[in-house]
Amino acid sequence: MAGADAASSDNAQRQGVRELRRVAAIDIGTNSTHLLVAAVDPSLRTFSVVLAEKSTTRLGERDAATGHLSEEALARGMDALRRFTDLAASHQVEQIVTAATSAVREAPNGRQFLQQVKDELDLDVDLVSGPEEARLIYLGVLSGMSFGDRPHLLLDIGGGSTELILADGRDARALTSTRVGAVRLQRDFVREDPLPPKGQAFLRAYIQGSLEPAVDKVRRRIKPGETPVMVATSGTAMAIGALAASEDDRAPLKLHGYRLDRDRLDRVVDRLVTLSPEQRKGLAPINDRRAEIIVPGALILQTTMQMLDVEEMVLSERALREGLIVDWMLRHGLLEDRFSFQSSIRQRTVIHQVQRFAVDQQRAERVAKHALCLYDNTAGVLHRDTGLGRELLWAAAMLHACGQHINLSAYHKHSWYLIRHGELLGYSETEHLMVAAIARYHRRSLPKKRHEAWQALQTRSERRTVSEMALLLRLASALDRRPEPVVDSIRVKTKQGILSLELVPERLNQNLSLEQWSLEGCSLVLQEATGLALKVKVQQ
Asked: In whole angstroms, what separates CA 236 from the centre of its chain?
């Protein structure tokens, strides 16, 4: 597997201390200004988020007569930027990368504001165009989500503009930016709240007319036979996703990767448009500021899905500010290209967690190697997986021992918790749960209905895959008895209800009695799970 090969070849990570580079990104938007401080790992060629801050600056509140950024908005913006630059300096960042978007680029005094920022804070702010904003959003989403071999439609609803992007893992096919956003629509058109039916109909028609050029451009670049995945970013999408998730039996720990179909979206929007601002503020997943502008934003999201005839969307917590970090890495030679970053996103995030949890990486790689060997040689015998389970097995094998520094005797339970609550970029919520569960059941008892890890799995197929991969990991980890490598490979044979495993030692005449004994200890579980007897021998 590519992940195992990438992990094995990454010798730099075995040298102890890693030199991390701190970079900050500031996104000056129409509704909010965001700060992100990232720790960039040059050897892994990835980054992790150290700090994320947000200030609702409302730069979109402009003077009605002149279109200028108001004095109050300028003061809020300067206060936020002053705090954010101080915070970034406290983290000893080597550079602050910035982007100012539609509110600043459209205001007649926008450049004066940026000059004031330069004079008072010595901060150079890039005033980005609509297409450049879309490109940075694409890079941000790319850094946190696996595109696979399908094109993706990325939708970012801002305060002043909406970006619609058609992209795949290699490049963006269409980058569009339309001057329609949640704050702009609220400011220009909402005179009554809740919106009366005529007001709703007008807004929907206005949004559709505004977005038609962007939607047409995207449609022309979708190839015959392709079915793109829709990804929604921004505060509006996250708030709507949080409202929908609050109705689930088990709400997700985080919204990144959360899926929402159009029927559920319609129900949420239909409810929102009937509520007064005070009633919306009473909804737990929505803060007071978001409650004021969420209806126009929700109508943009709903209308876009209808225009594109998309039945489901996936939420992404990563967008423009993470894109600024990826762009910085590209410009500093820390990424060869976008595709190399995307193609290894799953492997990079797993290795990052290995290092974060102080897992012995060399031992984890040996367990993963043996687990994948068993997977490849027991198809139709120990598993009926068609490919997905192999990647999940590798990830679980690399992380299965992460709970050992908490409690050795029950470390599998702690490993489940750490993996479950950690960040696995490029994995869906379901896949994340499955990786954690595979690690949970690689030792001790088989799954039971009362277990939280088992209850979190939604379908019979997910549970079967977890059971099969956990059994393979159980066998592989049974060989991990000593700090040094002693088993070179495993030879697998099945015949007449017997699974025969022959251990090939690293060195001639090496004693593998400990490993043989450990494997034989899996006999009862193997028999219970598969009906197969286990026979273990050592190559002489």
From this structure: 18
CA angle 329, 419, 456 (to 5 degrees): 125
505 Cβ neighbours under 8 A, 6+ residues apart:
486, 487, 488, 512, 538, 539
Q: Which long-range contacts (CB under 8 A, 24 or more apart) does 507-512 make?
A: 510/486, 512/486, 512/487, 512/538
Can you tell me whether residue 7 is helix, strand or coil?
Answer: helix
What is the CA angle 318-324-330, rounded to 5?
115
| pTM for the structure as a whole | 0.80
Does the pLDDT value for residue 17 go beyond 50? no
Give 61-76 as a DSSP string: -B-TTT-PBPHHHHHH
Specify the fold of 345-538.
Answer: Hypothetical protein af1432 (1.10.3210)
Give domain 145-317's CATH superfamily.
Answer: Exopolyphosphatase. Domain 2 (3.30.420.150)
Q: Are strands 152-157 and 95-100 parallel, antiparallel or unpaired?
A: unpaired
524 exposure class (CB count in 10 Å sphere: 0-12, 13-18, 19+): exposed
Return the pLDDT at 427: 85
Report the alpha-carbon distance of residue 151 to residue 145 in Å, rounded: 12
Q: Under CATH, what is the fold of the domain 2-128+321-335?
A: Nucleotidyltransferase; domain 5 (3.30.420)
**54 — pLDDT class (breaks 50, 70, 90):** very high
Q: Do domains 2-128+321-335 and 145-317 have the same CATH topology?
A: yes
Q: Are 150 and 165 in contact (CB under 8 A)?
A: no
Residue 89, φ and ψ in degrees, nearest 5:
-65, -35
Other Cβ atoms closer than 10 A to 461: 10
Helix pair angle (429-440, 411-421), 10° resolution:
170
Distance in angstroms (rounded) separating the CA atoms of residues 199 and 248 = 31
* Residue 219 Cα to chain centre, angstroms: 26
Domain ranges of the chain: 2-128+321-335, 145-317, 345-538
| Segment 404-421, tens digit of pLDDT | 989 999 999 999 999 999
Give 426's contacts (C-beta < 8 A, 6+ positions apart): 144, 145, 146, 345, 346, 349
Dihedral sign for Cα atoms in the order 407, 410, 413, 416? positive
Q: Which residues of 78-110 are buried (b: 16+ CB within 10 A; e: fewer)?
A: bebbeebbeebeeeebeebbbbbbbbbbbbebb
